[in-house]
Amino acid sequence: MPFKFTMLKAAAAALTIAAVSPAFAAGVPVKAATPSYRFELVGPARPVGAKQHVVSARIVRSSDNKPVVGAIVTAVRLDMGPENMAAMTAPVRQLLNSAPGIYVFSFDDSAVWFERAKWALTITATVQGERQPVIGSVVFQAGR
User: Fold this and answer.
1) Fold of 27-142
2) pLDDT in tens, 35-63
3) Which of 140, 134, 138 has its CA nearest to residue 37?
């Protein structure tokens, strides 16, 4: 009996993760899961050295159009979903924020950026005062 109980708990946990983070469960970018927020690109992707680029985004509270400061990014994904190739991903990591409310991410363009294409940066963040994580994406053009 304990084995079944453990398996049920594991299955419930997996369903909870998929429900909270549908972008990562399905492998496709989504718009903000909480309608009270939107995600905005802050300028184009820009080079910061040999084969490295940086893209910046902000999370905006729709009710007052103010950027969210202090959100904690819990997951990030970079893929070619806008080009109908969501399985094509690239490594991405968060950098220190350049200004309050601006979330900055770095990606290596050496292996995947052979031609200009649209990419989606999907962000899952914990926002103070929200019970569920806020999920959204920004689309930008990158490549050589």
Assistant:
1) Immunoglobulin-like (2.60.40)
2) 789 999 998 888 887 778 899 999 999 99
3) 134
80: its two tokens: 């070619």
User: pTM of the full predicted structure?
Assistant: 0.72
Residue 110 backbone zone (phi > 0: left; psi -120 to 50: alpha; other: beta): alpha
